[in-house]
Each structure stands twice: as C-alpha cells, then as structure tokens.
Amino acid sequence: MKRNSDSITPAFGSRYMTDPIPKHRLPENSMDPRAAYHLIHDELQTQGNPTLNMASFVTTVMDEECDRLIAENLGVNYIDTEVYRANLDIQNRCVSIIADLFNAPDLDRAWGIECVGSSEAVMLAMLTHKRAWQERRKAAGKPYDNPNIVMGNDVHLVWNKGCVYFEIEQRLIPLHPDRFTITADEVMNRVDENTICVVGVLGTSYTFDYDPIKEINDALVGFKHKTGIDIPLHTDGASGAFIAPFLNPEIEWDFRLEQVKSINVSGHKYGLVYPGIGWAIWRDVDDIPKSLVTETNVLGFIERSFSLNFSRGGAMILAQYYNFIRLGREGYTRIQNTMRENARYLAKGVREIGKFDILNGGELTPCCCCKLKDESKYNAADLVGTLAQKGWIVPAFSLPPAAQSVNAMRMNVKETFSRDMADILIKDIRNAIDKLEAVHHKPYAKVGTHHH
Ligand SMILES: Cc1ncc(COP(=O)(O)O)c(C=O)c1O
To answer: Which ligand 1 atom is nearest residue 201's CA?
Structure first.
C-alpha cells in the first residue's frame, strides 16, 4: 500500500507547508484540518501580542469557565429568539442590570439592546434622536430637513461616520492645546431648535478624560425652561460607563441627569467581555419612535426589531451575563480599581523619567496618557517605534483640533497589565529614551492623526 506522506506527518511534514497557501481564490482541493489550523495559527503569530497592546481598550482574557460557555454556544443565532429564548431572556437581564447600573429611574420603562459594539449602539441612538426630532417638528408644522448634533472634537470617529451616513450636520467644538474636553458654555453657544441631541463623552478615545456631562445637562435644563426647546443628551460611555459606576459613583453622567435619554457602552471594553459586544440603553422605551421598529413574521412568529443586524452570534451576551453574576459589584470594583492603581503607578514611573508631561495620570480612569516635553531630537512616533522592538504597542497621535500641536502617547491599562508589567514597560521606556538620545538629532517618524 502506498503510504501517503500527508497522513504520516499531516501538518508540518506535509506538502501544505511547501505549497503556497490559497489566498485569493477558493482552492480546488481540500486540506488536512491540522495543516489548515497551523497555516492560519502560525501566520497570526506575526501580528501584535494582545497582552502588550496598550493601544486598545478591548478585553483579551476571560475565565476558562466563560470560554467554555462561549465555545458551547458559538452556534446560537441571536435573532432566532423563538428557538433561543433563554438567550433573549439573558440579554434582557443584562439590559436591566446595565440600566440599573446607569440609574434608570424606572426599570420597567428603560429599554436597551445588545449591539456589536459601541459603534452600532451610537448609530441606533442617533437614529432615535433624529427621528424623534423630525416627528416633533412635523407635528408642529416646522421644517425638519436640517438636523444637527452638537459634540466636541473629543468624540470618537463613529460620530463623524454617523453624521455622514444619516445626513446630520455635525457641530464640532474645537479642543484647546491645554484642555481636551468641552465645556457647557461651548455646547450652549451651538445649540438651536434643530439640535437633535448633544453628545457628552465619558472617557474620550484620546486621553480617556470625562466631558463635564452634569454641567452640560444643567445648561440644557436651563435652556429648556427658558426657551421651551427640549434637547436630549446622549452619553457616549463606550469605555467610561463601566468604570465610573464602580470607581466614582458620585460623578453624575447617567440617567440621574434629566436630559440624558440614551447611553452607549462597550461590553468588550471595561464590561470585561471579548469583542464584539456593546449596549445601547434608553431611559424610556417611548424614546424610541415606533416608526423605527419593524415587525416580521418570517420565522413563524411576530418579531419586533430595532437594530441594524438580524443574524449574528449570541455567545457574547452569555459572556456578559457570566461576568455580571460571577463578579458582581464587588468583583467589578476590585478589577477596575486594580487597573486604575496600576495606571497611576505607570504614570508615576513615566513622570519620574523626567522627559514627559502627564496628560492623564489615572486620576479617574485606568489610563496613562503623556507627551514628550521636548520633541526636537525625537518625537512620540520615534519613541513608540523603538518600544515596538520590545513588542509594546503604544499609540502616538496628535490630538484633535485645536489641540493638534500635542502629540500624545496613550497607554490603556487592562486586566492583564500587572504591577510587574508596569515596571517592565517603565524600564523599556527608559531604555528607548536612552537609545534615542544617543543616536537621534532630529525626529524621523511621522506622528499619526487619530481623528477626523
Ligand atoms: C468614546 C468612544 N465611542 C465609541 C467607540 C466605538 O466603540 P466600539 O469599538 O465598541 O464600536 C469608542 C472606541 O474606542 C470610543 O472610545
């Protein structure tokens, strides 16, 4: 019997290792699963290491028990609610838990939905505000073709996308070289009867600072009483909305504030779940115009839907619920606090190097954001390029206008970043600086822009 070399050494000794991997067209023939696994697995080793990725807010580890739960439920389709009733039920429990965490005044009236991430949640919130405004204007016999949203240049790019996709004027408030959030006065100078909502960011993507959402709310309440124009406030809590409730419950940014009608949060950031899961939560189900809710009975039962997608995986909902019941308030508080303590420690070490100004030292959020005091010989991009030789992924970017003269380096601290890792990173930053000081006379690399 002719022995097939592919079955003797199915992965590394097989012809699949010497043949080119099929890249652009479906291959004619099949392949041994072990070879397919290794071809893909090994290629992935060339990309960044999630543990050393200080750029991302996104969760990279969960408990083994949760991994098992996810693996067991990879075949569950979220939208098949009649079949996967428990999944739907668990989603609704998560919505209730989050709405309660965000201090919704009436849990029976609050409404929410699981999304792919904060981006989808933001898009849905924008749609509800636009449609609600249009319906109010129509009913009053007023023009409804020129909606705007007021927000700072500190918003995530998803807001720019949404404004383009949904044809909404984006009224952007410039930042300042020494202030990276917005003020209530700056908001109020831009609102008018065509403002469908104002956005406050709880944890910006640039420096992880909080906009003064309570002050913006209070100014909008004053405006409502004076003019009769009732402008809703949306809190983009993509990263901060799972931090502030545990670490600074006294800060008001949520449904305790009268004008806050909708909030988004990423489950896959500080909700401590793998990507992609986010949540859109409304204070009151009536904040979602009925005209946006579709009904189908294609699956043999009446299904109401307000989402951008139909079919998708339901396993991350289970992972979010797992965290809620496994960690509870106690566990979330401990983990978020540990991360913030380590961010503060990192910021202290970076400050002691003597070459940096600290823009965010982990006062409120688990983040160390800094800038070089002197960029005449090397810049932030040169520095992060040198750090990359050690595997660290640290983003360097100019802040949005009009703070674009500031080249920031932002290090997000996640669960996997221990005190020991902080020591290693501080040492690597010191060594990188020494290296650059020795060889550089002018900056070489170009600092990226992270914005609009
Ligand atoms: C403030 C803010 N809003 C929205 C988003 C988009 O979130 P996601 O990546 O979950 O879609 C991010 C992502 O970092 C963010 O920081």
So the answer is: 1
